[in-house]
Amino acid sequence: MASVVTETLDPFQTAQGQVRQAVAALGAPQAVFEYLREPCRVLVCSIPVQMDDGHVRSFIGYRAQHTDVIGPTKGGVRFHPQVTLDEVKALSIWMTFKCALLGLPYGGAKGGVVCDPQELSVHELEQLSRGYIRAISAIIGPERDIPAPDVNTNAKLMGFMLDEFDRLKGQNTPGLITGKPLVLGGSKGRDEATGRGCAVVIREAAQVMGFSLAGATVALQGFGNVGSNTARILSEMGCTVTAVVDAQGGAYNPNGLSIHALQEWTQEHRTVAAFPGSQPLTSEELFALPVDIIVPAALESQITARVARSVKAKLIAEAANGPTTPEGSDVLFARGIRVIPDILASAGGVTVSYFEWVQNLMNYYWPESEVQEKLERMMVDSFHAMAEMADRHAVTFRKAAFMVGIERLSQAMAARGWIA
To answer: Cβ distance 299 to 323 under 8 Å?
Structure first.
């Protein structure tokens, strides 16, 4: 009888395993892992909201702050019906390593509220956003923990959150939150930052691997802010996007999809499904397509070992957080398929959030061209730091990215006297 492979689908277990392996690969002190195995602080809260029909409904919210060894913690807030405490803790760990890999002066954090935003009115979402900030206000601030948008949250909700915090504190605090509207101190270039950063590291990886983006074919899972911007910028770099899948369906055309037309279609229909001139397809079918590049830009644990065995692409760029299980990663590595890990491929957003925070603290704002230039430089430098670590230790990009992070976090711990 064939053995059954048990997949590690718990993102928190996955994140802890990645940290443990990187510590061991570098020969860092065990104390480094002990400091990083759990968030240093977790808040669980109940958020009562008066709904439009007058009744009160209570929502569960979370905020995990992983480590402040390098600086204040930083991370998004997601509204999703499947948010769990373990997911939020895992995401806070991954955010720590994004920041460390990029050289940002932050530790990681993450927040979430268990809800289905599709079922809530704009007024109810506003009250939920304000209630969440009231619940976590004691542990956040420009020098403590800086929230930002994530899954199902956006600049508009960040504006509500900022306003609520300012009301509580009786002062204007633009550095509290990033990803907010421009008029409230947001940064130019923030909306497309994650997609642009992903496209830049795909370009760098293609150069290292020896293939051209001109005519390279791309399939994306997810076509929200990150997926659509990644698709658009890759198209501008010469790629041909042939397939996109979202939660409602998929669109496939082996000759290529018009990204501009697809964006207009999704604005009207809220899905890529039934896009004119395309064939339907599922996520599993998308991962098996004969394309050069796959960009998972949806949720966690999408590429399992079984899915990985059918992948034909030569490069995967993880624009989502944790889209590949550890077993899936092992299969891809064994098959010679390169993976740009999430902690780099999706780091453009937190990088421009850092720029936004710096601009808020200085009260001096940069043109979009300067934001893009600084983002490109940091993404390119971080990619090559990871690639050099991978070559030096003969490990995957993923393990190398964590190892770069461990080096920087260990140095900070030693400088503070936490470790010898």
So the answer is: yes
d(CA 160, CA 410): 37
Supply the pTM of this predicted model: 0.93
Could you please state the CATH topology (level 3) that the domain comprising 29-180 is classified under.
Rossmann fold (3.40.50)
pLDDT digits (tens, 9 = 90+) for 174-203: 999 999 999 999 999 999 999 999 999 999
CATH architecture of 193-340: 3-Layer(aba) Sandwich (3.40)
Q: Residue written as tokens 């590690």?
A: 8
Among this protein's residues, is 74 annotated catalytic? no
Residues in the chain, overall count: 420
145: which 2 tokens? 């923990």
Collapse the DSSP code of 14 into the 3-class scheme (helix H, G, I; strand E, B; otherwise coil) and give the result. Answer: helix
pLDDT of residue 8: 63
- Which runs of consecutive H residues, i.e. helices, occur in 363-396? 368-393
- Where in the chain is CATH 3.40.50.720? 193-340
Among the listed residues 74, 98, 110, 188, the single catalytic one is: 110
Helix (H, G, I), strand (E, B) or coil at 7: coil
- E strand segments, 91-151: 107-114, 145-149
Those residues whose C-beta lies under 8 Å from the C-beta of residue 356, and which sit 6 or more positions away, are 178, 179, 180, 185, 186, 187, 190
Which residues lie closer than 8 Å to 381 by C-beta, 6 or more apart?
Answer: 103
Return the bridge partners of 306, or none: none
Residue 140 has a pLDDT of: 98
Predicted pLDDT of residue 2? 43
